[in-house]
Structures are given as structure tokens and as C-alpha cells.
Amino acid sequence: MLPSFSFIDKDLAPDRLANLKLYKYNAIDRSFLSRYLLRHYWDWAHQWFPSSMAPNLITLTGFLFIIVNVVLASCITPSLEYGAEGIHRWVYLCYAAGIWLYSTFDNVDGRQARKTKTSSPLGELFDHGCDALNTMFSAILQASAIGSGHSHATLLLCIAEALGFYLSTQEEYHTGVLYLGYVNAPTEGILLAVFVFTLSGIYGSSVWMVSVGQIIPFMPSFIANMSFSHGWIALISAFSLMVHCPSSLYTIRKACLDEDKSFLSTLIREDSPILIYCVAIYAWCTSPYSFILSRQHLIPFTLAIGIVFGHMASKIILAHVTKSTFPKPSILLVPLVGGALAANCPRVSELFAFTPQSEMLYIWGFMMISTSVYLYWVATVINAFCSYLDIHCFTIREKDSNKTQ
């Protein structure tokens, strides 16, 4: 039986908030780049941040670089396609700088928390919440840089990245440990993104329109005839769906066996939200009666579903730090599923059909409602955590640095 939807979480009840006192951050990072190279850079970068700057403020500042880049993509490359290279190349270099700074700030915030002795469960929730939003927002930047446009390939990129992040978060919920493998998105994934953005900034996004067969000989025809932009998306999606996701599911299965739980029941109960999410996105955008791809509405649509995904993933982390049951599906899935049903309604009935204008209005309404609900939820959670732990979210008080939450 599928779980019901929820809006305000029972995870904020006093008995759940009491579990915040038991919080202990656990993470394993197997990346050789992180352990032997980048950690020295992050240590160096950390020294430039004043001790008075709160860790969550560092996280938020880093995330603002992503927001600025999304605004640039929306205003300067709204088609997400290659062309007018002399004008657009500097934008791709901005993407590279923005994602690098985001990663830097994301790794500095933990060092700042340890230095100022202000580590708290709010920090993990805030950090992972920004990461969840970045997962979908960065897909817009990648599509812009490689010129994949408003296409099924870009849609596949969004779905694959969302599914991978969701299962990683679900894995952390069951194991209590954030596990980053030898090759992981926060390290190698960021470096690859910087490489892609920089390459487009130097040579233009048209470099990704070359077919694979022109550069790499002796490839099967279905690969040789593929552009590098679609090949890149296929590679990322294949790694997520065929390597990362099975690895997370295997770990979740082991955790279920250790807890004497049914793995199948756990999958049905906990993964139904992400399946609904992915199916709704695909059904809506690929419907012959939808204009999202043909009229280039994918950017506002991705922003809307990005907010939905941010809410879904953050609710799992909230349940993790409060030691609560796995969260119910986000209420924000309702307008997403509603849009998917409306876009496919003409298949069975002529009573209703989207026009380009009405669908665009629905998407913008969907985005504004989702953003409002999400921000209200975020404010509610932050207020509850700060009140219970007696801390501030974006500032450091002297008494906060003298204790560890």
C-alpha cells in the first residue's frame, strides 16, 4: 500500500526533536582525489573565511553561485542549444567558476563547523538540501554548455541525476553513513562538470555536436552516429543507472537484512515517490500534447521539478537526523502528477487539452506554488531546529562556539 502525502512533518514533534541531541555526523569518502589532493586545496581555501562566518552562511553563499548561473542560462541561452559562440562562451566559463566555487564552499563549511565548534544536524540538513537543489539546477547548466537543448536527452539527464541522488540519500537514511565511493558526484562529478564547462568556454558548445565516430573510430554505428553531447549524457546516465543506483540498492538491501526488514516492502514503500516523480516527468514531457520541449519551456519546468526534488530529498535527511520513520511522499508531487495527467488527457478524452499558453501558465504556477511551499517548509524546519538547539542558522553566537550541538 502506497503511503499518503504529507506537508508539515511529524518529524518536528518534540519527541523527534529530542533525537537531535543524539546526532553524530558519519561520512566515508573513498575518492583518491579528495584524500590526496583536493583536501589540501580545501584546507588552504578555508583559511580565507573569517571565524565569524557561520557554516550555513558559507553553504548558502556557495549555492548562490549556482543560482546566478541558472539566471544566466535562462536569460542568455534559453534555447540550451549551440550557436552564437562568440557571445555565449564567457557564460560557460561562468558556469565552470560557479560550480567550482560551489564545491569549494560546500567542502569548507564542514571545516568551519569543526573550527568554530558549531556542528549540528541543521548543518547536515542545510548542506544536503542545497545539494539536492543543485542536482537538478546543474542539469540546466550542463544542457546549456553541451547544447543538448530542450530534448529527450536533457530529460534523461535530469531523471538519472535525480534517481541517483535520491537513492544515495535513502542509503544514508538506512546506514547512518554518507558514503562517497572511489568515483563520486561531489568530487569527480564536479571536476568533470568544470572540464565540460571550460571546454565549451574555450571552443564553444559546437564542439559537442561532432559525432563520436569522427573522433573515435571502430565504434558501433549507433554510438558512432551519436553526437558527443548525447554521448556524454548517455555516459552519465548509464553510470548513474547501471553503477551508482545498483550499488546503493545493494547497500540498502544489506541494511534491511540487518534490521530484519523486507527489502521488497521497503522498496515499494520508500521508492514509490521517486518512481512517481520520474514517471510523471517523462509522461508529461514526452506527451504529443505537451509543448514543454517543442516550445522550449524546459527551464522553468526543470526549476519547478527541482524544487519538488529538493523537498523530497530534504525530508529524507530530516527523518535521518531526527531518527524518524521514512517520510511520506511530498505534497508537491500533486501538481506534477496533475500536469502529467492533463498533458495526456487528450489520449482518452477531448474534454481538456493544454494549449501552449495554458501549459506555460500551469508550469509557472506550479513553480511559484512549489517554491512558496518549499520555502515555508524550510523556514519551519530551521525555526524548529534553532529553537530546540538554541542556535542561530546564519550567525555564530559566542555561546554556540563553546558547545557542540
Automatic annotation (TrEMBL):
<protein>
    <submittedName>
        <fullName>Uncharacterized protein</fullName>
    </submittedName>
</protein>
<feature type="transmembrane region" description="Helical">
    <location>
        <begin position="86"/>
        <end position="105"/>
    </location>
</feature>
<feature type="transmembrane region" description="Helical">
    <location>
        <begin position="330"/>
        <end position="349"/>
    </location>
</feature>
<keyword id="KW-1133">Transmembrane helix</keyword>
<dbReference type="InterPro" id="IPR048254">
    <property type="entry name" value="CDP_ALCOHOL_P_TRANSF_CS"/>
</dbReference>
<feature type="transmembrane region" description="Helical">
    <location>
        <begin position="298"/>
        <end position="318"/>
    </location>
</feature>
<dbReference type="InterPro" id="IPR043130">
    <property type="entry name" value="CDP-OH_PTrfase_TM_dom"/>
</dbReference>
<keyword id="KW-0812">Transmembrane</keyword>
<comment type="similarity">
    <text>Belongs to the CDP-alcohol phosphatidyltransferase class-I family.</text>
</comment>
<feature type="transmembrane region" description="Helical">
    <location>
        <begin position="57"/>
        <end position="80"/>
    </location>
</feature>
<dbReference type="GO" id="GO:0016020">
    <property type="term" value="C:membrane"/>
</dbReference>
<dbReference type="Pfam" id="PF01066">
    <property type="entry name" value="CDP-OH_P_transf"/>
</dbReference>
<feature type="transmembrane region" description="Helical">
    <location>
        <begin position="231"/>
        <end position="252"/>
    </location>
</feature>
<dbReference type="GO" id="GO:0008654">
    <property type="term" value="P:phospholipid biosynthetic process"/>
</dbReference>
<keyword id="KW-0808">Transferase</keyword>
<dbReference type="InterPro" id="IPR014472">
    <property type="entry name" value="CHOPT"/>
</dbReference>
<keyword id="KW-0472">Membrane</keyword>
<dbReference type="InterPro" id="IPR000462">
    <property type="entry name" value="CDP-OH_P_trans"/>
</dbReference>
<feature type="transmembrane region" description="Helical">
    <location>
        <begin position="361"/>
        <end position="389"/>
    </location>
</feature>
<feature type="transmembrane region" description="Helical">
    <location>
        <begin position="273"/>
        <end position="292"/>
    </location>
</feature>
<dbReference type="GO" id="GO:0016780">
    <property type="term" value="F:phosphotransferase activity, for other substituted phosphate groups"/>
</dbReference>
<feature type="transmembrane region" description="Helical">
    <location>
        <begin position="190"/>
        <end position="211"/>
    </location>
</feature>
